[in-house]
Design brief:
Layout (H helix, E strand, L loop, with lengths): L1 H20 L7 H15 L6 H7 L2 H11 L3 H8 L10 H12 L4 H13 L22 H18 L22 H19 L3 H11 L5 H8 L3 H25 L7 H15 L5 H11 L19
Helix pairs in contact: 2-4, 4-5, 6-7, 6-8, 6-13, 9-12, 9-13, 10-14, 11-12, 12-13
C-alpha cells in the first residue's frame, strides 16, 4: 500500500511540475495518467514496472504528447512551434528540411509529405494501424523522435515509389537515420561554408527577399504586394539570385574537387537547410529588416516582441 501511495505521489508531482511549465495546455490529471499508462505499455519491455517508468519518463515531452493525444488545441500549438535543436528553428522547419533532401526540386511532394505526416500523428492511415503519436513511449525526447520517424517514412517512400505508403511497422520509426559517409560529410561541410559566405555577401534587400519566401513562406505575389512592385519583378529577382548562387557555388565546389554532373541539383537541395539555419534569416532579424522598410508582414512579430510567422 505504501509503495502504491509513493507512486501516486510521484505521478502527482510530475503532473504539477509539467502543468506549471505548460499552463496553457489545460490537460487534466486523468488525461495525463491515461496517456502515461499508454506510453508505459509501449515501454514495458524496457521498464516493466510503473515506478521505474515514472522515474525515467521525459515528463515535459510526455505532457505535450498527452495533451495532443487528448486533442487539446494548445498542445498542438506547442508541438507545432517546438524548437528542433537550433535557435529559432522549429519542428516544422526540420521536417521540411528532411523532405527537401529526399525530394529535391519537388516542392509539391515536400509539402504533401509533411502534411501527410502531420495528419497521421493522431489518425492512422488504415484500419488496424497505430497513429504515429500513440507509438511514443515517453523515454526519449519527443521532437528528435518525431524527426526520426518522419525521416524513415520518407526513406520508405523512396524505396517504394510506386506504392502507397502505409503506416510503418512498430519499430521502423524508432531507429536512427542512416549515418552519412565521410565523403558525403566532407561535401556537406564544403558546401555549407561556401553557401554561408555567399549569404554573407548579400545586401539586405536580397536577404529580406529570401527570408520572406523561405522563412515566412510568402508567395511571390504576396512579396510583390509588400514591395509594391509587379510579380514579374520579384520573379526576375529570384531567378537572378538563383543563377548567382549556382554560378558561384558550382565554381567553388568544382575547385574543391567535385567531379559529378549533378552539382546544381545538390546545391539546390542543400541550400534549403542552409537558409533555415542562417542567423541573418532568423525571425527577429527579418522583423528588423521589415521595420526599416516599413513593411508589415502578418504573423511576423516586431523585433522587440515574440512571435513566429503564421505560415509554418
Amino acid at each position: 500500500m505504501a509503495a502504491a501511495l509513493n507512486v501516486d505521489a510521484r505521478l502527482g508531482l510530475l503532473y504539477a511540475f509539467a502543468s506549471l511549465q505548460h499552463p496553457r495546455l489545460g490537460l487534466s490529471m486523468e488525461g495525463f495518467r491515461r496517456r502515461l499508462e499508454g506510453m508505459h505499455a509501449r515501454a514495458r519491455p524496457t521498464l516493466p514496472s510503473w515506478s521505474a517508468f515514472l522515474a525515467q519518463v521525459h515528463v515535459l515531452d510526455a505532457y505535450v504528447a498527452a495533451a495532443c493525444l487528448e486533442n487539446q488545441t494548445a498542445g498542438w500549438e506547442c508541438l507545432f512551434r517546438a524548437p528542433a535543436g537550433r535557435v529559432d528553428r522549429l519542428l516544422i522547419d526540420a521536417l521540411r528540411q528532411r523532405a527537401a533532401r529526399c525530394f529535391p526540386l519537388d516542392v509539391v511532394r515536400q509539402d504533401e509529405s509533411v502534411a501527410d505526416f502531420w495528419g497521421h500523428l493522431l489518425v492512422a492511415p488504415r484500419e488496424g494501424s497505430v497513429p504515429i503519436l500513440q507509438r511514443y513511449d515517453g523515454l526519449r525526447p519527443l521532437v528528435p523522435w518525431l524527426i526520426r520517424v518522419f525521416h524513415n517514412r520518407l526513406i520508405s517512400q523512396l524505396r517504394s515509389p510506386h506504392q502507397r505508403v502505409e503506416a510503418l511497422a512498430e519499430d521502423d520509426g524508432l531507429s536512427e537515420p542512416p549515418e552519412e559517409t565521410p565523403s558525403a560529410s566532407r561535401w556537406e561541410e564544403t558546401f555549407c561554408e561556401a553557401a554561408r559566405a555567399w549569404l554573407a555577401d548579400l545586401p539586405d534587400d536580397s536577404l529580406l527577399l529570401l527570408g520572406l519566401l523561405w522563412r515566412c513562406r510568402l508567395s511571390q505575389r504576396e512579396v510583390a504586394g509588400l514591395f509594391k512592385v509587379h510579380e514579374g519583378t520579384i520573379s526576375r529577382q529570384i531567378s537572378k539570385l538563383r543563377d548567382q548562387a549556382l554560378d558561384r557555388l558550382e565554381a567553388q565546389m568544382r575547385s574543391a574537387g567535385w567531379t559529378g554532373d549533378d552539382v546544381q541539383a545538390y546545391i539546390l537541395r542543400e541550400m534549403q537547410s542552409v537558409l533555415l539555419d542562417e542567423a541573418r534569416l532568423a525571425l527577429p532579424e527579418l522583423a528588423r529588416l521589415c521595420q526599416r522598410r516599413g513593411l508589415i508582414v502578418p504573423g511576423l512579430a516586431s523585433p522587440n516582441g515574440a512571435g513566429t510567422p503564421d505560415r509554418a
